[in-house]
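Internal tracking record. Fields below are filled automatically when a chain is submitted to the structure queue. Please do not edit lines marked as system-generated. If the sequence contains nonstandard residues, flag them in the REMARKS field before resubmitting.
Queue: standard
Priority: normal
Entity type: single polypeptide chain
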Amino acid sequence: MLPFPGGAPDGRQRGVDRSMVFSEAQLESWLGDYLWPLMRVGSMLLATPVFNSRQLPVRLRLLLALAVTWVIAPTLPSQPALDLFGQQGVVILLQQILIGVAMGFILQMVFAALVFGGQAVAYSMGLGFASMVDPQNGVQVPVVAQFYVILTFLLFLISNGHLLMIELLADSFHTLPVAVDGISRNGLHELIAWASRLFAGGLLIALPIIGAMLMVNMGMGVVMRAAPQLNIFSVGFPITILLGFALIWVSLPNVLAVFDQLQEQAFELIMQTLRVTR
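SYSTEM-GENERATED OUTPUT FOLLOWS
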């Protein structure tokens, strides 16, 4: 009897184990267990300060997102078995990206308040022309604002803020599971309304120095009226800068206190948006 050219009479090829044959539904389920968390984790890392720095290569950030997903995926609830390329799959994909970006956007506003306050301080003391490239965003900012940002970045890392963000992200899969409905409309409105804290926090940082520099400039104006022959520009400009540096040093505890307050409020808003209770 001649052997069958295609294998056995029942259609199976020789040397192929039928136990290794997976259905399409199983493949989509296994892929979804890691794809949905990866989208939320990756978007959070790309939008969160420190993680989205231009100094970190994109490959490193991608490897970090894969590592975090690989660690937290076994602890997460089972993901919905849906068509990854269907209509619901695309909606769920957009929801996971929105959740991750919202978490990072809240912290971005905290550090943006420091940039806003640093710019106001620099302009009030005559250092608005002294600017440098911000490695975080790749734009020109005054050196005073960059000093505040670097200092608060170190404080953020020392206080384990990055680890708290990853912990809140892992908890969000239990309180806000992967589904078609994600962040509610009220949550988005509160997120947008919280952007006003950016300007309020910046003013709290810069207002003491701006008020002091205003008094200094008024004093310079009185001196100029009393002694018109005195070249106030050549004398007042160095004095203004020196007093500005002294005021920055004196008001530094106030800057750190405002940052701690904004950071605490930001984490409270993130927990409220993700429905995480502590």
